[in-house]
Write a structure and sequence with these properties.
The structure is a single chain. The chain is an alpha/beta fold. The protein is built from 4 helices and 13 strands. Helix 3 runs parallel beside helix 4. The longest helix is centred in the C-terminal third of the chain and has 13 residues.
């Protein structure tokens, strides 16, 4: 899927490849998981939201890293990666940080559960708002709808819809209504939890409130 010079490729589950068509050096991955055995473009930047195996997958990171790849992640992710991957460059972050890296503007935001224990707030796990050529892309990570989202502004949102460990498709629609993006894309379904019906429910709910939403084919 292309949006104003930015290509967004869904890799399945919560994984994405984002490419800036006007700047070929920026090959960005977020939470790669269960990648096929094909020749993927090597990463300039890899953003990991948290240390659960379906988001911080060492096997999949190995498929896309190169000598100068940089992984942006939390401290617990760094510890996990450093045990099995040598000489990898890592930038440790926590929620509430703004920084620039490789020409991109990045903001880290909270991602946690309310009323369930899978993703505690005090783990300081993440969502990311990545700005490319003035376009802000929000990857929510594994999270419920939380108070910190009241201030999020983004052109494109990548939202979990599978429920159980994250918000449901109906809750994701409410979040889309709050953020009012130009485009909403469902994720976190058809692998560990959730199915295509959750994604379809999300699309239908977004259309009812006038928000453009699209299901991406897995690549």
């Amino acid at each position: 899927m292309k949006y104003k010079g930015i290509e967004i490729i869904w890799l399945g589950h919560a994984g994405f490849l984002i490419k800036n068509e006007t700047e070929k050096s920026n090959i960005v991955y977020i939470d790669p998981f269960q990648l096929d055995n094909k020749d993927y473009e090597k990463a300039d930047l890899i953003f990991i939201t948290h240390s659960h195996y379906d988001h911080c997958s060492i096997e999949d990171i190995k498929k896309i890293i190169k000598q100068d790849s940089l992984i942006v992640c939390t401290s617990d992710v760094q510890s996990k990666i450093r045990k099995v991957v040598d000489n990898i460059k890592v930038k440790i972050v926590e929620p509430g940080i703004n920084f620039e890296i490789s020409g991109l503007k990045v903001k880290t935001v909270n991602a946690y559960n309310i009323g369930k224990s899978f993703h505690p707030k005090n783990n300081y796990w993440l969502g990311y708002i990545i700005e490319i050529n003035g376009i802000k892309i929000y990857h929510a990570g594994d999270t419920d709808v939380i108070p910190e989202m009241n201030t999020i502004k983004a052109n494109i949102v990548l939202l979990p819809v599978g429920g159980a460990y994250t918000m449901t498709s109906y809750e994701a629609v409410k979040l889309a209504e709050l953020i009012k993006p130009n485009l909403a894309i469902p994720m976190h379904y058809s692998s560990i939890i959730g199915n295509i019906n959750d994604a379809k429910n999300f699309i239908e709910g977004c259309k009812k409130i006038g928000i453009n939403a699209e299901i991406l084919d897995k690549e």
